[in-house]
């Protein structure tokens, strides 16, 4: 009888050098080198602690504060339970509704135009053109530039008297040049312009990655059938980009509707209240008027509204994409 046959029959097998304990672990189905579950928990513990400290606890705090009237100066002893009074006051507050309209105008115009600019850049930079890599990087730079630098730069460019933009427009003999951030009529459009400039690079990058994954065999079939560029875009490119577009719609709408730093730096909510969005109104209510309970109620109502809009966007695109 050969040695292999002897081991297969379990007769005369040499003793396991790791001892009977190791053989027992192997028979239980887990390899001896498998890490213990505690190792996995240790890896994700920093992220879990971060989510707990900076997301879950603040969210629960906001929910609890929305049912109270609390002035920060009075300390925790000054917290008074007021039930639904804050929510009733929110729906009767004309400043809230005005800020809501401004937020919808701001995000409702900036997000679609950002998508259009980002898609146009992605389609152009997806072609084999000179210095393509350099151009891709150049268009992405505004997205990673510090918001303070962006604000200061555009304040100088759009200065009503000394700004380069108005000086350029003046070359064509135009009268009544825009006053940009100094005008209650032009401040919001100027803010939208700056937002598109800073966010288009992000949309461009996401669209470029989606175009890399486009089904090339469908383009070849369309070319054989004699389809033009517009027909190929409408039948292949756009349906394949629809999930990406919905993702960008959701992320950009959430991000732009919550813009605070740029507004605080450039316009401080003005002139008047022409650029007071809901996020800036929440800041004013809490840190200028010290009405933290009411500001929490405004934040919760805003959260529910944005979540409902995102849900509608997601449901509207279901079944329309070329592939899920």
Automatic annotation (TrEMBL):
Compartments it resides in: Cell membrane
Main location: membrane
Ranges for region Disordered: 1-33
Pfam entry (one): BPD_transp_1
Chain segments annotated as transmembrane: 38-65, 72-91, 103-125, 137-157, 177-197, 246-269, 289-314
Annotated ranges, domain ABC transmembrane type-1: 100-313
Membrane topology: Multi-pass membrane protein
InterPro entries according to UniProt: ABC_transporter_permease, MetI-like, MetI-like_sf
Superkingdom of the source species: Bacteria
Keywords assigned by UniProt, alphabetized: Cell membrane, Membrane, Sugar transport, Transmembrane, Transmembrane helix, Transport
Record-stated family: Belongs to the binding-protein-dependent transport system permease family.
Protein name as catalogued: ABC-type sugar transport system permease subunit
Annotated organism of origin: Brachybacterium sacelli
